[in-house]
Design goal:
This protein has about 775 residues and is an all-alpha fold. Among the domains are: about 110 residues, Alpha Horseshoe (Serine Threonine Protein Phosphatase 5, Tetratricopeptide repeat); about 50 residues, no CATH class; about 120 residues, no CATH class. It is built from 40 helices and two strands. It has a two-stranded antiparallel sheet with strand order 1-2. Strand 1 and strand 2 form a beta hairpin. Belongs to the PPR family. P subfamily.
Amino acid sequence: MFSLKKAKLHAVSVHQSRFSSLFRAIEVTGTQPQASLQHGLAGEKVLSDARNHSLLSKLCTSTRFDIWSMNRTEAFSTMSGSILLQARDPAKLNEEIQIAVDQRRCDEAWRLFEQHMQMEGFPRKSVVNNVLVCFAESLDSNWLQKAYTLVEQAFEESKQNLLEKEPLVYLSLALAKSGMPVPASTILRKLVETEEYPHVSAWSSVLAHMSLTGSGSYLSAELVLEIGYLFQNNRVDPRKKSNALLLAMKPNTQALNIALAGCLLFGTTRKAEELLDMIPKIGVKADANLLVIMAHIYERNGRREELRKLQRHIDEACNLNDSQFWQFYNCLLMCHLKFGDLEAASKMVLEMLRRGKVARNSLGAAILGLDTAELKLRKVSGEGLEVKEHDSQVLSIHTMIPYEEFLRDRKFLNLEAEAKDVLGALLAKLHVQVELITSERGVLQPTEEIYVKLAKAFLESGKMKELAEFMLKAEHEDSPVSSDNSMLVNVTNACISLGMLDQAHDLLDEMRMAGVRTGSSVYSSLLKAYCKTNRTREVTALLRDAQKAGIQFDSSCYEALIQSQVIQNDTHGALSVFKEMKEAKIPRGGNQQFEKLLKGCEGNAEAGLMSKLLREIREGQSNLDAGVHDWNNVIHFFSKKGLMHDAEKALKRMRSLGHSPNAQTFHSMVTGYAAIGSKYTEVTELWGEMKSIAAATSSMRFDQELLDAVLYTFVRGGFFSRANEAVEMMEKEKMFVDKYKYRMLFLKYHKTAYKGKAPKVQSESQLRKRESGLAFKKWLGLT
């Protein structure tokens, strides 16, 4: 009896030793790798060792009776009792996880969840979804990351049936609000792929919060394009009841406005134009906000003809507020300046001034006052720009609607209102960018900025006569000012301070011939500038002009003349000037008005139009050659129509005329080739030309949209060496790359490429091609 008991104790000792070794192995293999949130569903699997499970099961079966019959439960529990308890009773562990979730104890819920994953895999479906909701409600980046990792793992293990649509949409919204647009967009994409279509009001709310960041705005545009593609050209039959959920996902006007506004604010306007091209294909109706956003996009991309077509809709629209009118006409005016059409721009300004003059009379003021009151009433009722809603948007971005309320709102009205708030904040930022036009009594009026830009453009093109005519007409229509403070005098003074003396003299001649009297200060300033540069002939001509205009110079001008004569060793001339000054009885210490004005401008003091013009000419960038805009529009038209042979001819002609292609030119060409397909060699040639121009001049600058278009074409065609070059350039410039899109593109067209061992016999070019393909595949995370 004693020996039998001793043998059983020995058996327990052996089994305990085996269990201890086994649990150490499980601890080693059960660690959870952290998946990168910013690169799609590419995390490592968190799986327990199947062989350890099998061994554990066998050991439990063979020893259970011996251990329990020896009454050694306490000793056994010290080592591994909790794990054995969970292994034989997963239902209790599910209950504990649910309790932790209900009490919002995320740490405890995650600890228990990890234990369940190590032994049994995923818990029950309801528990998994409740954990996702709990982590999403916390809005904590750490728990959001863990929740997204669980989603990644479920899809990788083909267990997406455990995930319900509503918790995933809720998690996507939380990720977007927390500044994680990549995982937020990936969840939406996965829902669409698995045909669990989210409602447009739900995913547009996610889109709104994504659009507050640069990468998020780009992804928002991509999502709308991908979802919109499903509905192009009436592909979905609305008469079929089975299509009801799919049709509920169709992009609406608000979703498009959000994506387009984000693109505008972060400068991806060519991507925005792709969205505009899609609008008629999916049958979305434009509202007032969409019309104004379209105007901004056309202005940025230099589509003046499109703006002119849009003007008819703007003028006929009855629901536009005054701010939206400002924005449209500001865009039209900017586009005229971009194309160097100074005649059209000056006509617009003069027309505004004429209407303002009419509005200043009593009858016009009364009528327009009623209109203005109506506009204000519409704004109060919420029809205008949603600037007043910005505070609520700031509040909503940092809070999550409770999940129970989220589920009750079957039509997603709360999320729709939240998205509208964010859209209002985005549109308010666009409104701030309006600088050329303002409003008085409901009538559009030009600001000083437009006079500055027009004056600069006239000066750069050497059109002094046209500049003088415009300024004089503008002063005639506007409120009268003193002769020494007129716009033309300010422009003349600016020219003098910048050393543009000939242009200043030309403007004085134009004013004199038009019968406009000017003060002595501008003549004095120009005379002193001529004296400093020893331009004797011009001094003589200016003195003659001043005499005709009845201008009397002060003592400082005579002193400058005397000093100039002395420098040239003309003693007789200096004495003659001094004698003339004595006879005229001119007191010393003359007018120093211009010197004070110039010092004020240099010290950043407020000096009105002159100060702004000085800053614009000294610091402002020169306008792009108007010819480049013209040829870009021609090439864009041919590329959009798929007429690439004509586009190539236009590009060749553009080069021959001395216009250097820029990023917009090449973007049109690349997207045109990509649309018709199989033109990868042509894109490769363009790629080489782009790099050559970029290395030689500053006119060609690679941007995200151009490199993304190039990368897409190379990946589609399997040109991975060139694709790696584009990726390297984008990462060097810290540009966002949508890896999910390229992963799906690679799997669609090159799924079986570069699998297995390399061929034993292959040429050097084949070897390089394989290495490039493997490098790109590794970058995507597919190896």
